[in-house]
Amino acid sequence: MAANMYRVGDCVYFETSSTSPYQIRRIEELNKTASGNVEAKVMCFYRRRDLPNPLIQLADKHQMAQSEDSPVAMKLKKICLKTPIGEEQAAQAVLDPAIVAMEEESSELPGTDGLAPKQRHQAKHRELFLSRHVETLPATHIRGKCSVTLLNETESLLSYLNKDDAFFYCLVFDPSQKTLLADKGEIRVGSRYQTEVTNLLKEGEEDARNSEELETLVWTPEHGLTDRQIDQFLVVSRSVGTFARALDCSSSVKQPSLHMSAAAASRDITLFHAMDTLHKSGYSIETALSSLVPASGPVLCRDEMEEWSASEANLFEEALDKYGKDFVDIRQDFLPWKTLKNLVEYYYMWKTTDRYVQQKRVKAVEAESKLKQVYIPNYNKPNPALITNNNAGTNGKGTVLNGGTNGTAAIAPTVCASCQVTNSSQWYTWGPQHLQYRLCGTCWQYWKKYGGLKTAGVFGESEGEACRGARTGEEGALSASHRPHRCTVLNCAKEFKLRAHLARHVATAHGGCEGARPVMKTRAAFFLRASPFTRLARRLVRALRRPRHHARSPFSPINLHQVKHEFTVAMAGVGGADMRAMGAVAGLAPGSGKVRVRGAVGAVAVRLATAHGSAAPRAQEWLLLTPKDRMPVPEHVAFPKPPKAPDGSLMYERVLSRAEIEARRGETPTLAPVTQALKRRAYDDINGLDRGVSSASAAPPPAKRPNKHPAPMQRPSREQYAAMCARAQATGQPLPAHVFAHVNGKPTSLSGRGGRRHVISWMDAPDDLYYRATETAKAARRALSCGELRRGARAPWRAMRPPAGPPVLPALKGTGNAGANTGTGSAPLQLVILD
Amino acid sequence: MAMQPHSKKRVCYYYDSDIGNYYYGQGHPMKPHRIRMTHNLLLNYGLYRKMEIYRPHKATADEMTKFHSDDYIRFLRSIRPDNMSEYNKQMQRFNVGEDCPVFDGLYEFCQLSAGGSVAAAVKLNKQASEICINWGGGLHHAKKSEASGFCYVNDIVLGILELLKYHQRVLYIDIDVHHGDGVEEAFYTTDRVMTVSFHKYGEYFPGTGDLRDIGAGKGKYYAVNIPLRDGMDDESYESIFVPIISKVMETFQPSAVVLQCGADSLTGDRLGCFNLTVRGHGRCVELVKRFGLPFLLVGGGGYTIRNVSRCWTYETSVALGVEIANELPYNDYFEYFGPDFKLHISPSNMSNQNTTEYLDKIKNRLFENLRMLPHAPGVQVQAIPEDAVNDESEDEDKIDKDERLPQSEKDKRITGDGELSDSEDEGEGGRRDNRSYRAPQRKRPRLDKDNNAKDDVKPEDNKEDVKNVSNLEEPKKEIPPNA
């Protein structure tokens, strides 16, 4: 009950649109309209997302300036906040070198220290901007209470995050001027503002002040009279007053009864007079009594209330009705014979009378339209964005994620776009229609209340925002760009406004060179088999236009709904023939398009040289290869040979030194080394190797950089995995399906249309492998055509038989930072793309 | 919890019977009438006869220009509702017009308000009184040459300037719901006046009073601001008021205190947003009074006038150390106090946005600032009311066991220590001069004798009194080393 009672001064959620977040308003007035509805005059708070982008940056800088007391910060404060700043000026302020310098230092809200990135992200949802903008909304749109307080710098933002419906604000936003102001007055310093402080009196110096000039004693408690005596005297003076009224003609008219006279004589003015009399007569009751009844008759003290005649009182009421409490006008037009003081005194006494109470009642009826509080019941109607089971039968409980292993459930799974849960009692559509985002019940509530998603940069938030911006025009276009660059190094996650700053941060703080990507154990392995449609979509859909980018950033989500949408649009009205043609262009259909045979690069070079008529390439000295015996030999081997097993074999396969490679180059390729080289190697075997060595031609690719921030990593032990692989190889099958289908962690979002997705559990994921191509392998690879190679890469389980005798295995390259592995001999190859 | 009579003090009260008749204008929330309502309640409660009642003089322009600029006072003196149009430019310059309207008798009103506070300060200086009350004063927003927030002449600054003649350090405390910006600004750069203001901060008049405003120049750390949020209740208020004021007393060691009792921090105020009751508000008066320093009480804001007069009546009784009935006595304005006609009011059910966590953080920050004050190490803090012996037990009972003890309580537990008092008498500490803290006791033979008489049964307190008596032989006026 109390929760649904909304008072003037409360901060509340207002729902003005079912799809957008609530608006936060403070009730200034509640008025009943003629139709009986209640309208609320409210003051607006703006969310971050409602502000133009330059102002958000300005707000962040203000925060920074507040958190530090450095001179730069003070300067900044002056630049940004002393005067209202238009957007243009704001942009200039951004360019101020001092600010840029500061921005490099840090760009965090104060009090965010020790906040996880997710909390920092959520804290931004709690920031509001006060405005002086007032609007009127129907009170029925109220959707609950919240609290908005001015952020104090002693508070941590965590205290807001821990409370529901708690918001803070620091700045005041002027929506018409597009300016931000600090809600802060200023104590001015200077001789024009401070007082000259009086000096302490010197010894012997007399204060010129004389109390007698400053005050008149009216009463002293040191009078020697008892309380009782004083009370008695007061009674006597009242009796004298009553008698005086009986004698006074005008009074006896006004107060026809004795009671009334006595009441009139008991008013405070008589008592004050009695006290004064006592004081004046030196607290002698006798003297005081005699001065109460001088020769001229008993003393009569009357206040304004009594002094005024009935007609004057009527005039006054009439005037009050007409002019309100403008006593100057009342006096001028109605009661010129009274002084203003008479009027004021009378007015305040008149307020105690019945006449006033009656008037007040009349006024109260008038004022009924102004309400102090209003009861708004909980709003129970379903939001239109709510997905009911009728219109989306596939949603709801029990939806099988990933289509399972049997490949039957090819419908789009429901995943919350914010928290990625798959289980929720309620689902809401969110974002632009065609993207078909879903939000779970909790995230929907969060979105409505706080105007954002729980996690930063999660699946498509920015896209959703961008689309919103595209629709609502200017407003949103500004907001989407405000996404900080976050350091991806484990346990760091600092945010930067500019990519350059991030790069610098990575270089200095993490010692990494360019492109710091998280170096950690991959979570799960899966393989992706693209259907022809998927392949076509890859060519057609704008969102997938940057395959290289996607390959490099396998973590950045691809919005499938959007892909689907675009693809359907692009494919609309395209017939089968066209599609095949497109496929041909895309080089999808196997065997389509002619592969031009150009021969080896060396041959081409020789051909070109002769074509230009120059001398035979042999003639050039510098083109000749250095004889092997004259090749430089390293002075020492940085990594000596590993210890040997009792049987004399190496504990693990050695990395060939340059000399050995050279030596081996001379030998005729045989099968034996190939098979040896094709042995799988665990990722951590090379983990300890120095990259200097690996730069040698046969060295493993620098797939992984050693992790500078080791986090506890879980992976199957070597033995477990070896057993798994051995079993797989023995049966000639890929790793058992249950290994892949068992989903433990959250699913990755990448998935082909209709393609089966195998996700290996995080626990069961095999170690990354790398494939080291030997000379033989490389030679064998060269013998394969480009198309065959590609096909091999896509279907790694298929054995490949090159035309020349021994089975040659293509080296496969995984996308991203994935490793590739191959099987041996005719054993099926297996490509594991690790995300 | 009824207020126990704490101690009987000599109380002087300043009032001019005209003050209630000044009228700011239609719809203006400031109503000087509330002062008259208080006065009538005091009479009918019988408090009137227990105080020295004075009619203050009208402060002269000369007195006002001790703080205010000459042209501003000249302007105030000459402007009237009928000649306003001639002063358009100056009205803008001096911020007179909207919040601070020109009304009939404006200058006289200022004169009476300022006259009361100045006379009260002189009274305290002459040690003719321990507590002075001027409910007509407390107009804490007025600036040197600018009116602000219904205030034209800053009687508080004028009063403090007067006190500074005799007191090396004066403490100003402001419990109005609005920030005491006028007083803070006037003394922003001096270390002789510390201003402590408890106020609602954030989107609220006058906009100043940030926690980080701590004074400037020599006055750095001598401005203390306690920014609060809506809904402060008695308990929260005391939980922040007690530790802050105790700490301030301990570190600043003032020899006189001015308390602005703006009653707009009461629940249900027309302009305020706190949830204090009359008791909680009066508790501040009681707590400050316990320090036993020369004490000037002034009015201030307060826009629900029935509650203002309740509050100031109660606070007068607290100053007097007299218990008064909850039943209001009949008086001319009795009908204003309906429907219950009680002295005390109950808090509303508004929510208190000041969490314990928030208040603790503010408190800690302020403690940090106060630690920056030059502080004579090893100087015993001595907030012993001269009659502390009378109420030792009951005070202890009232204090929450978990709370930090008020200094006065701590000091009561310290038995007289000859060594300590010796070093005090030598007075080598730069911060200590004869006027700080105990000065009034030393200089009041009458009271000391009283104490001696009372303390016969308390041998441990005799040392103190012996010392005080011996101090009486010292010259009456001493110049502190740092004066």
Explain this structure:
The complex is a heterodimer of chains A (835) and B (483). Chain A is an alpha+beta fold and 835 residues long. Helices cover 38% and strands 11% of the residues of chain A. Chain A is elongated. With 483 residues, chain B is an alpha/beta fold. Helices cover 37% and strands 8% of the residues of chain B. Chain B contains 17 helices and eight strands. Chain B has helices at residues 33-45, 61-64, 70-78, 88-93, 106-125, 155-163, 181-186, 234-252, 278-289, 305-320, 356-371, 392-398, 407-412, 418-426, 439-442, 445-454, 459-472; strands at 11-14, 52-56, 131-134, 170-174, 193-200, 223-228, 256-260, 295-298. In chain B, helix 1 packs across helix 10 (305-320), helix 5 runs parallel beside helix 6 (155-163) and helix 8 packs parallel to helix 11 (356-371). Chain A: Residues 185-296 form the ELM2 domain.
Described by the principal axes of the CA atoms, the overall outline of chain A is elongated
**Based on helices, strands and strand pairing, what is the structural class of chain A?**
alpha+beta
- Average predicted confidence as pLDDT of chain B: 82
Q: Say how many strands of chain B there are.
A: 8
What is the alpha-carbon Rg of chain A in Å? 45 Å
Helix percentage range of chain A: 25-40%
The tally of beta strands of chain A, per DSSP, is 20
> Pairing-aware structural class of the strands and helices of chain B?
alpha/beta
Strand adjacency order, main sheet of chain B: 2-1-3-8-7-4-5-6
- The dominant shape of chain B is globular
Q: Helical stretch count of chain A?
A: 34
Strand percentage of chain A = 5-15%
- Calculate the terminal CA-CA distance of chain B, rounded to whole Å: 44 Å
Order of helices and strands of chain B: EHEHHHHEHEHEEHEHEHHHHHHHH
CA(first)-CA(last) distance of chain A: 53 Å
Largest sheet of chain B: 8 strands, parallel
Number of helices of chain B: 17
InterPro entries (chain A): BAH_dom, BAH_sf, ELM2_dom, Homeodomain-like_sf, MIER/MTA, MTA1_R1, SANT/Myb, SANT_dom
Protein name (chain A): Metastasis-associated protein MTA3
GO biological process, one term (chain A): negative regulation of transcription by RNA polymerase II
Family (chain A): Belongs to the metastasis-associated protein family.
